[in-house]
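Quick one:
INPUT:
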């Protein structure tokens, strides 16, 4: 089906109206899980095959954004398929450990969600999800002959790893009427994050229709107008009836397969049975309490929700450490920068650590001096030899220019 005629960008009063609508919509985001899954991009939602182009009434981009904002879906159950391809180097499993550490894992429990769910940062995974309002959700990661489940019911959050027969118990943040952000967990969560970036640096169009999870949907396409971003386009399949995003696909500017392709393969908007959210540790299972692990589950969740697993938002002061965090640029070209207070990455040849690091990054130089750029298909980071870090969804050249401007 040919693309509908639609708004190509949003500016002025329209943008203000959209931002207001998105704030109102925040309370309706369905948080399929309330743990710190953002470190996994949580791409909680990847690949569903589209089937057919349903004939739906024409709609503009502005109308479709408003439809998403007005969506009030809080009950659902279904199956989600997630595919994530960040282009991380193959480190023989080491990358999973590094991501786990960055996510705050490492208390020794294989059931710890902040460690377990980093697996979603790469590969293809299938999850079963269920939600009944902001205080009851369940997500199960299906593995070979095993299952990993997280259950949020009221103040309790339980995580169970059937492979190791271990349980992790913590308390999640309560949200009776709080309009705080949740970690990305469904196509809707991803869409909300992207729509926050909609301004005069963004092109927003409606590109026909699709059939997703046996439901009719419109396709909203969001693209950066700025050069220098690694984001090519984001496509959101929006349920024509409820306004809820069913599928989220992010394609890099470099082309190729999607970096994140997340979506429902099956979805039911009726209320799940109350028993879905019941959990009792199996007899004999090892149970780890968050207080015994020296962790604060609620704070972990809030921190992941604030960062979204990416660079800090410009309006938030997330500065920690010697230099704090600053933001350079705007829109899709925003770059987070901070000073480690020490030297940059080790460098050198041979079989030492420096040689290993050199093999993972590209040496660059400029007015700022010299440093190393570590790249994925979406996020790039420049670490200067004097310990300054620049990171964002921008090209290597954009990072070097930012570093030069910072001198």
């Amino acid at each position: 089906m040919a693309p509908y005629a639609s708004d190509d960008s949003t500016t002025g009063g329209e943008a203000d109206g959209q931002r207001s609508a998105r704030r109102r919509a925040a309370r309706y985001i369905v948080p399929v899980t309330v743990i710190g899954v953002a470190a996994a991009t949580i791409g909680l939602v990847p690949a569903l095959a589209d089937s057919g182009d349903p004939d739906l009434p024409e709609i503009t981009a502005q109308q479709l954004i408003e439809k998403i904002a007005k969506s009030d879906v809080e009950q659902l159950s279904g199956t989600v398929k997630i595919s994530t391809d960040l282009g991380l180097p193959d480190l023989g499993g080491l990358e999973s450990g590094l991501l786990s550490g960055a996510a705050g894992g490492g208390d020794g429990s294989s059931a710890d969600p902040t460690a377990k769910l980093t697996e979603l940062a790469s590969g293809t995974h299938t999850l079963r999800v269920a939600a009944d309002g902001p205080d009851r959700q369940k997500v199960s990661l299906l593995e070979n002959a095993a299952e990993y489940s997280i259950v949020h019911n009221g103040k309790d959050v339980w995580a169970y790893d059937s492979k190791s027969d271990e349980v992790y118990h913590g308390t999640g943040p309560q949200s009776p009427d709080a309009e705080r952000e949740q970690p990305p967990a469904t196509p809707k969560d991803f869409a909300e994050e992207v729509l926050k970036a909609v301004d005069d640096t963004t092109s927003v169009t409606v590109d026909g229709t699709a059939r997703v999870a046996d439901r009719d949907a419109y396709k909203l396409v969001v693209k950066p107008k700025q050069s220098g971003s690694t984001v090519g386009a984001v496509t959101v399949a929006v349920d024509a009836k409820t306004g809820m995003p069913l599928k989220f696909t992010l394609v890099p500017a470099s082309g190729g397969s999607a970096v994140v392709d997340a979506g429902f393969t099956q979805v039911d908007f009726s209320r799940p049975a109350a028993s879905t959210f019941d959990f009792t540790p199996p007899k004999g299972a090892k149970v780890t309490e968050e207080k015994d692990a020296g962790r604060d589950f609620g704070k972990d969740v809030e921190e992941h929700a604030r960062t979204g697993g990416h660079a800090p938002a410009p309006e938030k002061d997330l500065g920690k450490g010697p230099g704090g965090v600053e933001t350079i640029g705007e829109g899709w070209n925003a770059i987070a920068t901070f000073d480690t207070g020490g030297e940059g990455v080790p460098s050198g040849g041979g079989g030492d650590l420096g040689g290993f690091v050199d093999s993972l990054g590209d040496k660059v130089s400029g007015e700022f001096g010299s440093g190393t750029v570590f790249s994925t298909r979406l996020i790039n980071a420049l670490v200067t030899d004097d310990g300054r870090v620049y990171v964002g969804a921008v090209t290597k050249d954009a990072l070097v220019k930012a570093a030069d401007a910072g001198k």
